[in-house]
Structures are given as C-alpha cells and as structure tokens.
Amino acid sequence: MSVNIATILDNIAAPVVAATPIKDHTGKIIDFDIIYTNEEVKIASGYAMQNKPRWSDFAMNITSDIPWFKMALDAIAGRFHDDVRYFSPSTQAWYKIEMKWLPEDKYIIITFINVTSEREYYRKLKKTLITDPMTGFSNRTGFADSFAITLETARFKKYYAALLVIDIDNLQNINDSLGSQAGDKVILDVAEVLKQFQREYIQIFRYGDDEFAVIITNFESQDSLVNFIDCIYDAFQLKQISVSGGISMFPTNTEQKDEMIRFADMAVHYAKKNGKNSFIYFEPEMQRVFIQHLTIQTRMNAALLESNFTQYYQPQFDIQTGQLRGFEALIRWNDDELGNISPSVFIPLAEETGLIVPIGRWVLYTAINTLKTWQAKYNFRGIISVNVSPIQLLGDGFIEELLDMIETFKVDPSLLEIEITEGVMINNMGDAIEKLRQIKALGCRVSLDDFGTGYSSLSYLQMLPLNTLKIDKAFINDITSEDGVQATITRSIIDMVEKMGLETIAEGVENNEQLNMLNQFRCNFVQGFLRGKPMPYNLCDAYLAGDVNALLKN
C-alpha cells in the first residue's frame, strides 16, 4: 500500500483496518494479518492495535462481544452482517462495523462508522419506553444497554464494577393479603431508599416487578464496595423493609455481562433460601451447586416420566408391647448416571420446580396401593404414613385426588396417615387447617412430622386437627446426655401432647438407652434403626408373611 494512500487514510475521520488471510496447509483460513490501521482506529481501540497484531489479538484487545472472525469469513463468502455495533470506551462513541472483501487484492477492509449521534437521537426517543413510570428509574431494557457500556468502560479503564440485584421479600403475599396498593407502596418505599444512593457511579434500575438492580463502578477496593453495600442494606433495615440481595463483581467473579447477571441472581437465590432479608456475595461454589442441581432436576424429570423412583417403608413399633404399628412410606431414587440421590437433596429441588406435586401424587398412590395389597394378603390393620409437601397439600385438587384414590382401592381410610411438617403453617395457617379438617373428615389420620425443628410453637398444636405428633431425631440424639436438657424438653413435649389426647412417635431411635428413656417418658411409638431401617417392598412383604429375619436393624 503506497504511502500517499496511507496518508490519506490517516486523515479520514472513520477508523479503518486492512487485513490479509492466513491459511493453514489445507488452505483453510485460520487467522488474519492486520497490515494497516489508520490513526482513528488506534484512538477508537485505545491504541490496542498500535503494533498491528494478528486478527486473534485484535479481537481480544478490542472486545470479545463481536464475532470478528466469523464476520470476516462471511464477508469473504459474500454474506454481510447488517447491524453490528461497538462501543469504544476510549472515545466514548458508538461505531457500526462494516466489512468488505477485495478479492483482487486479497484484502478485507473493516470500517468503523460513528453512529453516536444517531444512537443518541434514538436513545432520547427510546427514553420514554425504558423509563419505569412508577419509580422513575430506567427499566430492564435500559439496564441492558447501560450495563454493557459500564463493563466495557471498566474493562478499558481497568477498574472494578459490581452488580447488586435486590428482590423485595414476600411482595406477592403482600399483594394477595393486603391488596395491590399496599404492594405498590412497598415498591415506592424501596425506590425512595435507593434514590438516596444514586450518584454518577451508582446507577439504579427497576429490574422487574419486585426487583431492582444497582450498578456500582469506580470503587477503590472490594472493602469500599462492601462498606457501601452495607450502607444500602442498613438503610432498608432502618425502614423495616425486608429485601434479599445478590452481588457479583467485575472482574473478580467474571468479565462477562451475562455471567455477572446470572451470578448476582444465584446469590439472591441463596439469600432467599437462607431466611431472606440479607445480602449475599456470589461465590464460585454457588455455580457448582447450581449446575449440580440443574443436572439433578433434568434427571428428575426423566425419572418421573420413566417411573424410576422406588418406595421404601420404615416400620414403627409400640414402645411397650413391641407390636408393629405400621410403616412410613419413604421415596428413594437411584439414578443410572448419578447413583443414589438423597431425598434431602432432590425433595427441596422438586418443591422449587413444582415437580413435588406429581412426585407426591406417585408416592401417595403407591402407598395406598401397597396398603390395599397388604390388607388383601395379610389382613393388615397397620397404618401407612405418607409425607405430603405443603405445596401438594395446599394445591388445588389434593382432597379430591386423595378421596379418589381411597375409593379406587377401597382401603380403610383410618389406616392412612397424612404427615405434614411445620412449614405448611407459613403464611397459610387458615388454608392448612381447613385442608387438614377435610382430610380428617375423609376418615384419615393426620400427623405433624419433625416437631421442634421449625417454628416450635406449642400454641398452634391446639388449633391443628392432629392425631399424632412425631418428635424429631434432633431431640432424640442427645436425650441421654448428662446435662439432661434434651431429656427434659422431650419429656415436657410428651406430657403436654398426652394431655391433648395425641399419640407420640419418636424418630431416629438408634440405641436401647434412648428406647428405655422414651419408655419412661410414656412415648407411644418409636421409629429408627434400632427397631427397623427403611426397607424395600419385598422385605416388608416377607416380614408381614412371618419372616422376622426380613427386618433390617442396626
């Protein structure tokens, strides 16, 4: 290329690049040599192309968001990309990228056309569309544009940036119980708290119905970021507004905007799962757990469709006579790829995704079918207990499904016990009590499982239509300890429940010392490895047929 032409190009306002293909031994284009860049492109790229690098260097030095190499190959093939744009942190300008192949000279020419004025015009036109009318903040669309520019600028200037996603706790419940006006007031209160933090380097957005996003840049250190975010959290606490937040950092966690958003959302999810009303910083372990859970969720869908779950049954015994009371139905899952997956892992995931409803339906159906079979074969008069998730219990149609199964299999409903946990009381006390009363009206028994691990309110026990209370293993573990604390608590619970006319079942009984103490306390029934482990159907069937050796014990 002659010097005169280069001089002319250097005085053109538009950045221009010229490159030639590099081919391997097969003739395939693997890269490009940049043979010329004018002064404007050096300025627009922040002088990242000063030494005329190869194309692969050029792409990484400028931005990885544009498919430079693919665009060049497409241009050579006669295919063109209409609207690819690049924001230059150096010039703070937007450029439209155009590529043209000169087959005779074997050059590909890249031209950066400044479209900042055009973009600014459309930005102003678009402002009314990206502004949330309730709060005055930009909405999710405005966030996408601003966040991309923020990260490009932070990458160029080599400073930190952070994303804080804030989710209002329980907004749906507020709308349902108090009305949408009350919910709107909470949203406006959150906006007022955030407005006091708005600065040149602090951008705030209405990210969703119950979510806000805060982009924070140009802070000196991670400690200063933590201090600032603590101030935001404290401001919400001062106003008694419960919010959950998740924070991701650039470049500490990632340099990709999509990952920044995903990581902040993951952290919000962890905050929600761990009691809400807290801000949590993203950690790499969260992503590992997320991927693991996603894999399990995918496999769980397949397991449900292919009927790969198994029902086990753990026996319960009368503590004084040793007679069999019945069995608790327990779901088990052995996946071909993942192996044995604990219910403590997949049940919470099933509840999050809604799969707990069809899974719970399968568990109940299988248990009632088993009860019918044992009634016919052995005149079995024991009780089958089935755990029912709060989501399943409070969902539409549960009572109708239960009645339909009872009538289909023609089982005695008094031998079917529905187990619930204290979690069913969260925000749904009235609905839960009504559903439990309907279950008892069908003739079924109702048991409260894991008592003492949740809200542990003795007062609501009188409100619930219960037959049985199960004392959690956490109490039984230390019941024989020398300080006597757990023993005193357990005895008090049994005494109180006995006066209420309820039966008690102690879970997790693993040794004779625990058994003897529970017998002294007049506990009615025991369940645990000492008397019997969870067993597959065939061993339970053999045990009911008279084979006492079929029982699995410690």
Morphology: elongated
Which percent range fits the helix content?
40-55%
Amount of beta strand: 15-25%
CATH homologous superfamily designation of the largest domain: EAL domain
Detail the poorly predicted runs.
none
The total count of helices amounts to 20
Describe the structure in your own words.
This protein has about 550 residues and is an alpha/beta fold. It folds into three domains: about 5-115, Beta-Lactamase; about 130-280, 2-Layer Sandwich (Alpha-Beta Plaits); about 295-545, EAL domain (TIM Barrel). The protein is built from 20 helices and 20 strands. Strand 1 and strand 2 (about 30-35) form a beta hairpin. The protein is elongated.
Would you summarize the structure shown here?
Residues 293-548 form the EAL domain. This protein has 554 residues and is an alpha/beta fold.
Write a concise keyword list for the protein shown above.
single chain; alpha/beta; Beta-Lactamase; TIM Barrel; eight-stranded mixed beta barrel; five-stranded antiparallel sheet; elongated
What order do the helices and strands come in, and which of them pair?
Blueprint: H1 3-10, E1 16-23, E2 29-37, H2 39-44, H3 55-62, H4 68-76, E3 85-88, E4 93-102, E5 107-114, H5 116-130, H6 140-157, E6 161-168, H7 171-178, H8 180-195, E7 202-206, E8 211-217, H9 222-238, E9 243-250, H10 257-273, E10 279-281, H11 284-306, E11 309-318, E12 324-335, E13 339-341, H12 343-353, H13 356-378, E14 383-387, H14 390-394, H15 398-409, E15 416-421, H16 429-441, E16 445-451, E17 468-471, H17 473-477, H18 485-499, E18 503-507, H19 512-520, E19 525-527, E20 535-536, H20 537-544
Parallel strand pairs: 9-10, 12-14, 14-15, 15-16, 16-17, 17-18, 18-19
Antiparallel strand pairs: 1-2, 1-5, 3-4, 4-5, 6-8, 6-9, 7-8, 11-12, 11-19, 11-20, 12-13
